[in-house]
Design a protein that fits this description.
Number of strands: 19
Distance between the termini: 64 Å
Structural class: alpha+beta
Number of domains: 1
Low-confidence stretches: 137-146, 203-209, 246-251
Strand order of the largest sheet: 5-6-3-10-13-8
Radius of gyration: 21 Å
CATH architecture: 4-Layer Sandwich
Order of helices and strands: EEEEEHEEEEEEHEEEEEEHEEHH
Length: 263
């Protein structure tokens, strides 16, 4: 029997998606601060410590649980949205940057998912949002984005956000793929995760892809994104802070005027 709230949902949009959650009377959805988009009048908002799953843990227990989430880039607080009306009502949450919203049915996925930090968007009340450390020494020292990850546990619906296009890959027993750590969105706990050195002096110095990549070995499901937010941010930062050279262009400064960069 399911213990988490059972919610209905629909995902809208293409590049900038949002998810609309339909709540029956008394049902609650939880979300990260800043994810809220809109809601019906009968929906009531409440700021809570952590995810509200363990309401009997006391203040210190709630603080410890919420504090672990800070390590994954989330805040101490979350917001609960409860339908206080007599009929069905809706609340919507928007993606923070271009990409896709992925619906994860934890009941069908075995009750647990491991996700990239900052991936969580919203969920049915009862889903626990925690932290998952990758315990291997190599992963801890060199894993970068892949060392500290989010853990979603429960039997309800959870929604995570990924950048760019998203691919779901089913790995068979013993099947292994090598992947940039930032491109991992989520995977089932049955997938074996590790970090490997790229190798080769030329790759290390001139490759431009970092010194390490992740290896994922099946069996299990893996969700992969084409545009990690860290990659997007680094490109924007590089473009915004480095003065562009004309590089011997015949048009020179006039070319900048024509392409909208005339200052």
């Amino acid at each position: 029997m399911m213990s988490d709230h059972e919610i209905d949902y629909k995902i809208y949009g293409e590049e900038m998606q949002y998810v609309e959650i339909e709540l029956d009377p008394g049902e609650t959805a939880i979300a990260e601060a800043g994810a809220f988009m809109m809601m019906d009048e009968a929906i009531q908002m409440e700021t809570i410590f952590g995810d509200g799953r363990h309401e009997d843990k006391g203040f210190f227990g709630k603080l410890m649980s919420a504090g672990k989430r800070v390590l994954t880039g989330e805040s101490l607080f979350m917001t609960a949205y409860t339908n206080m009306g007599h009929g069905k009502n809706r609340v919507s949450f928007a993606s923070p940057y271009p990409g896709k919203i992925i619906a994860l049915d934890l009941y069908r996925l075995g009750g647990k998912m491991i996700c990239q930090k900052d991936a969580f968007l919203c969920a049915a009340k009862g889903v626990e949002v925690g932290i998952e450390f990758q315990r291997k020494l190599g992963t801890g020292l060199f894993g970068g984005e892949g060392f500290i990850m989010q853990k979603l546990e429960g039997d309800g619906m959870a929604f995570v956000h990924a950048g760019g296009h998203v691919l779901q890959r089913e790995l068979q027993y013993g099947e292994t793929i090598k992947i940039d750590t930032g491109c991992i969105v989520a995977f089932t706990p049955s997938v074996h995760y590790d970090i490997q050195f790229v190798g080769g002096i030329k790759n290390t110095i001139f490759g431009g892809e970092g010194l390490f990549f992740a290896t994922l070995e099946g069996p299990g499901s893996v969700w992969i994104q084409t545009l990690p937010i860290s990659r997007l941010a680094s490109r924007i930062l590089a473009y915004g802070t480095v003065k562009r050279k004309d590089e011997g262009s015949i048009l020179g400064g006039l070319g900048n005027l024509l392409d909208g960069d005339g200052r």
